[in-house]
Amino acid sequence: MRRLVYFIAATVDGFIAGPDGADPTGPDGFWPIPQDYIQHLVSEYPETLPAPARAALSVTAAGTRFDTVLEGRRTYEIGLRAGLTNAYPHLRHLVFSRTLGESPDPGVELVAGDPVATVRELKQADGKDIWLLGGGELAGALHAEIDQLVVKLAPLTIGAGIPLFSRQAAFDVHLWELTDHTVLDTGAVFLTYDRKATAPGS
Ligand SMILES: NC(=O)c1ccc[n+]([C@@H]2O[C@H](COP(=O)([O-])OP(=O)(O)OC[C@H]3O[C@@H](n4cnc5c(N)ncnc54)[C@H](OP(=O)(O)O)[C@@H]3O)[C@@H](O)[C@H]2O)c1
Asked: pTM of the entire structure?
């Protein structure tokens, strides 16, 4: 069965963005993106690069891992504000929102319903794995559905910001098994964790 994979960049202190909810890796961002990190994405996860980056890097590979991407409205709007209505035209692209009335792009499917029900339906269909892009609020709603975590741990701490799962997420313990890791020379670490089959105490 297809898996839901939360493939996410995080600081060592567990944040995915600063407190302002802006793009930390954008032109005014504080989050350095070293060359070996980009190269690792190009070689291992080319489908996770947004279309302008793929074009700039001459990446055309379909990738082997994901054919679908899910994002929350606030993450999607970061691209929208930059004039990008669909950053991932090479993937099936679903945006969760109860407030966006109409999709700004024919390639983007707006979903107003329950993300858990949508993910369970997607898992039943054939295809590659499903990439949960974020942000923290959507990931919090989908915590129990995540089958694999790929944390792109960045060598920085920021003290405050948006956590991996939103501050509103429920307390819900899950155990993970480290199944892969890559340490890059510039200090980023890609950590892959698969969900352990059993919950604690069961
Ligand atoms: N480090 C990384 O790799 C990475 C990746 C992605 C995002 N980010 C960062 O994450 C930040 C945004 O995260 P965020 O937590 O503020 O917001 P988010 O999860 O991107 O979006 C939240 C919105 O998604 C919709 N949503 C969430 N849960 C829902 C549910 N259960 N049912 C229906 N719709 C739901 C709602 O939209 P409506 O209000 O329209 O209903 C909600 O306001 C940005 O700063 C971004 O840069 C970082």
From this structure: 0.97
